[in-house]
Each structure stands twice: as structure tokens, then as C-alpha cells.
Amino acid sequence: MSKNLPAIDADGHIEERDQDIRKYLEEPWNRRNTGLRPVDQPWDQHLFGTLGRDEAHRAMDPAAEMETWLKIMDEHEMEHAVLFPTGSGNISQNREIAYSAALCRAANNLFAKEYNSVSPRMQTMGVLPLQDVGEAVKEMRRAAGLGIIGFEILPLGLPFGLGDSMYDPLWAEAQKLGVVMGIHGQRQNSIVVGGDRFRTFGETHCYAFPMGLLLHFTSVMWNAVPLRFPGVKIAFLEVGATWLPYYLDRMDEHWEKRGEIEAPHLTMKPSQLFRESPIYCSLEAEEGLLAATLEYVGDDHILYASDIPHWDSEFPKNLQQLRDHPELSQESKEKLLYRNAQTLFGIGAKATASA
């Protein structure tokens, strides 16, 4: 049994409230009474209140939510948690650049002052006004100065894939600062990847999360972002990991036939680039092909994530499943549960495996 292995949660969530963000809005934006971000279809993601703990978390102020998180972590031997915003990443879908920049400053100030200050065991990721790359670079630099260790990038609604040259200044700044670029699954604005063809929340959510990430994974790899910005830290989150062998094989085939002309910066197979770069994906502990995926890409690229408190979180079952996984070695479990997140985020103490 490996239940005593410590864990770092690489993708939990806060349910930040609009009223708390508004406290940090500057003039004249603090006098504006509109919403903070676009809203989606009126989906019942909690299925008549039977799924998830979002509503309970959303009722808490930052101090109460962080206290709840610490209790969960202590109970389940999670040493550290990296927490992603739930709604604020959608600020990047606003059309008004100045308003979005002000909102990102307010949200990041909130995260730094009322979430990250509670305990060194918890770090909340920041958000960026990606409508304007120059503004996003400025806010990345400012927020990193507040101690923000990385940024949530929601994939749907951006004008081009993140490997496009227009984002080069963003990658250069992330490389310089050593912050994590956490590209996180999303279903809002799923229309841009064909999600408007569905009538239920389940099929929309099932489809849109991986499609958005695959779009940007393709762009980042095809345009050789890890080669052009060596050491830049990238994570693709909340769609599992077992898609990697299929999709990297597919990318390898296209690179072999077309890469010399269409991907001049990509000087090696995409699968090789993935294995040799600080690129990470979060897993789903119930994935049937997890062991085979580790054999294909190596066990240095996969992260444990709880997804607390969202409707589709499998916590604490997923944590125990990974600790007890019959097909994984003790060394691999230690990497997936702890060391990979430690390396990516630069957090946590030395993990010790129990035999």
C-alpha cells in the first residue's frame, strides 16, 4: 500500500466571488455595474444540486475557503495545492481591453492578498488579459512581482493558437520569469470548436474540454514553443493524459510529411520534443491506459489533480486510486503525486516514498 505517499494537488480550484474582485477594481471601473465577464448557456452543471461542492465554496469568503482547503489537505495528506480560478479566466473573453486589464489586476491582487497570504501550502494561479498580448505581458510581470507563480490560460475564444508568433512576447516573459503557463480545459464559448451543435451540458462539456486543449497543444508543439523558449513551463490540464500516445503519434506523422516546409522551427519529432521538454498534463486516476501512457511518454510529465470542488471531481477517490494503483511502480507514483508538480511549480518539500 502506498497510501502514505504525500501529494501535491496540481489543479484544485477556488470559487472566487465577483464582490471580492470588485473590492480591488480601480477608478473608474469600480463605478461600473455590469458583469465582469461573458456568461454561458444556463446549463444545470450541478444536475439539480446532486453534483459537486461549487455552491458551498462560492458562498465562502476567501479566508473561509482557504480554511476549508487546509482541512481537506490535512485530512488526505496533501502537502500543497495549486488552485486555479473558476470564473476569472473568462475575463479574457471580454472585448474591452482596458476593462479586462483592470479586472485582471483586481483579480490578481485579490489572489495575492486574500488567498495566497493564508498559507505557504496554497498558491492561486493568476489571470491575464489575453485580448492584448502587450497588456498580458505587463500584467504577467506585475502579478509575478506579487508572488503569483503561474497563470491560468483558458483556450476557447483566443484568435489564434498559442504557438502563433503573436504570442511570442508572452512566452518570452514567461520564460524570463519562470512562471507556469497553465492551459486549462474550458467549455464556455465552446461554439468556437463546434460545441453549439449539442443540446445537453454533458456532451458539450465532454467534447469542448479536450478540443480546446488539443487546438493549443497542436499549435504550441507544431510551432516549437519549447525549442524557441527553452525551459518555459507549460501544463495542459483537466482532460486527462491518455490521449497523448494517440495524438503525438498523429503529430509525428504530419511532421514527417510536412514539417520541413510548414514547421521550420520544429527540428525533431513532436513526441521527442514532448519527452525532452518541461511540458506536463494532469491525469485522471481512472484512465484505463494510464500505465501504457507512462510507458510511452515517461513518468516525468504527468500530474495529480483533484479538481475540488467542481461537479465532476472524483476526489478523494481519485487520490486513493492513484496511491493504490496496481500497475504503477512506487517511483512513478511518487513522481505523479508529488515530484513532477514540485518541479513544475517550484513548491513543496522532499517527498519520501513508503515501501
Describe the 3D structure.
The protein has 355 residues and is of the alpha/beta class. The chain has one domain: Metal-dependent hydrolases (TIM Barrel), CATH 3.20.20.140. It has a 5-stranded parallel β-sheet with strand order 4-5-6-7-8, with helices on both faces. A 3-stranded parallel β-sheet has the order 1-2-3. α4 runs parallel beside α5 and α5 packs parallel to α6.
Structure, briefly:
The protein has 13 helices and eight strands. It has 355 residues and is of the alpha/beta class. Strands 4-5-6-7-8 form a five-stranded parallel beta sheet, sandwiched between helices. Strands 1-2-3 form a three-stranded parallel beta sheet.
Q: Would you count the extended β strands for me?
A: 8
CATH architecture: Alpha-Beta Barrel
CATH superfamily: Metal-dependent hydrolases
Would you tell me the structural class of the helices and strands?
alpha/beta
Order of helices and strands: EHHHEHEHEHEHHEHHEHEHH
Spatial shape: globular
Would you spell out the secondary-structure blueprint of this structure?
Layout: E1 7-13, H1 18-22, H2 54-58, H3 62-75, E2 78-84, H4 97-115, E3 122-124, H5 133-145, E4 150-153, H6 168-177, E5 180-184, H7 201-222, H8 225-228, E6 233-237, H9 244-262, H10 270-276, E7 279-282, H11 290-297, E8 302-303, H12 317-323, H13 330-345
Helix pairs in contact: 4-5, 5-6
